[in-house]
Write a structure and sequence with these properties.
Elements (H helix, E strand, L loop, with lengths): L1 H12 L7 H9 L5 E5 L3 H10 L5 E3 L7 H11 L4 E7 H5 L4 H8 L4 E7 L2 E2 L5 E2 L8 H8 L3 E5 L5 H7 L7 E6 L14 H12 L4
Amino acid sequence: MATHEAQGMAQAAAPEFVLDRREAVPALIGRHEDFLIIAGLAGTARDIAFLTREGAHAFTMAGAMGGAAPMGLGLALARPDRRVLVITGDGELLMNVGALATIAVLDPPNLSLVCVDNGHYGETGYQKSHTSLGVDLAAMAQGAGIKRTRTIAQEAEIAAGARLIREGNGTAFVLLRVKPTEPPSYKRGLDPALERLRFRQALLGKA
């Protein structure tokens, strides 16, 4: 009986996912050239590759699950003169959610994190992720100590989120809830040496 009650409570707490990522992600980011971008693997990598047409200022990951947030942190600390945007999925962030605590302690003002939460593990077969069962990554970010957090679940909320990721008063975290639909179709370049070189040139202002 207790198990059934727990399952019922989890289902009752599960959020709604209504936004279309193909529209919501570009609307939230706006002028992407304003950022150095680290994109997590799977859906967000394709979101960003399509949006930027694989611009040199964007580094899209593959296979390194859990690496986007700490990589973005290091980049923000190394280049305090540039705005750094990490955009990753719920599954990728769940693999290394403890990174939020380190980010909160260091609190670089030029770092923003966007978690595109579709409630599914897109890299491993589209199983439901913890967030579809009630886990709130924005609440976890806030609990870790990130003071500037926001959840976006409706179109009317996107503008406020777009302002938040561009403000410089401390690290920002935005949870963008989207429907579990396919990201844009885009064939990325997967030569790691070439991608590293291109991004390094943008990082050094030579792109």
